[in-house]
Every structure is written in structure tokens, then in C-alpha cells.
Amino acid sequence: xxxxxxxxxxxxxxxxxxxxxxxxxxxxxxxxxxxGSEPGTLTLLDALRARGVRVLLPVLLPDNDLDWGAYEGExxxxxxxxxxxMALFEPAGxxxxxxxxxxxxxxxxxxxxxxxxxxxxxxxxxxxDRVLARLERAGAHPALVVLLYDSEVVGLVPAxxxxxxxxxxxxxxxxxxxxxxx
Length: 182
Hints:
Layout: H1 3-18, H2 21-24, E1 28-30, H3 42-50, E2 54-60, E3 66-70, E4 77-81, E5 87-91, E6 106-109, E7 113-114, E8 120-121, H4 127-138, E9 143-147, E10 168-171, E11 174-177
Parallel strand pairs: 1-2, 1-6, 6-9, 9-10
Antiparallel strand pairs: 2-3, 4-5, 7-8, 10-11
Helix pairs in contact: 1-3
């Protein structure tokens, strides 16, 4: 994709996501900063902040679990290299602890694909599996939304017994729901 394609895709994705009732009424959204070839998220993060939403971003811990920090704009991000893996953009400010995600009204999840059942294929590190388990243990039920390109919505992805379906996938072309908006 060209730089213009990426900008257009990011804007379309943000527009679709912002139409979700779950995000429209959210006070806190746990999200992430896209890296590599992932659909761009900064436009969406800034739009959520402009609405007065508290945006939490992950901080990768050495054991692949996630801590959280508040997003205060692109200037508040630090590029962090984690070993031999790709560099991530993480909040540079105060760490809120792994349980901070349990306060979110919606959680935006990265992924490689999602299937017709709403099962998400992640990158294999287990970070978001831990997040979903933490939410379940806390009795928290935020909306779970995956942000993908249209071509990443597929017929079937492998699933493990611990995997949980998401509520919706947002692509630049639209929204597909797997569970009704609550």
C-alpha cells in the first residue's frame, strides 16, 4: 500500500469504528498503536481522545503480559524495542498495572484475521489471551472489537479451547457483528 492508501484506510477504519455504539458511549477504551502493516490506529485514538474518552494503551512486559498507560496524544508515545521483535509504540507515562484494562468499556484488539464465528487469530505471543482471561476473572464484559483489513476476515481460523470470540470486526469497508451491541 502507498502512503496515501494507508492514510485513506486509517481514516476509513476510524470512521467505521467511531460509528459503533459501544465506542460512542465508552468512557474508557483499551486500544493499541498499530505497527508494521497493521491498519493504522492513530487517527482513531486521536478521535476518541477528542470525544473525551480515556484511551489506555498496552505496555509489553518481559513475560508477554500487558501493563497499561494512558494515551495523551502521539507526543506521549515512546518507540520501544523488545528484544529481537518489532519495535512497539507505548505510552511513556505512568504505568497503571495489568488490571487497568478491566475498567475499559471497550477493548480494541489487534489480530491477523477473524473468522465467521468471531474467533480472532493473534500473533501467537498470548498477550491478548491473558487480557481476555483477566477480563473474565474480573467479571468485566467490555465490547471486544478487532480492527482489520477487509481481506483479513476469513472463513475459519484455528482456535484453542481458551480462545474467546470477539463481538465485532471493523474494517475500512464496514462492521461485521458476531454478537449484538449491548
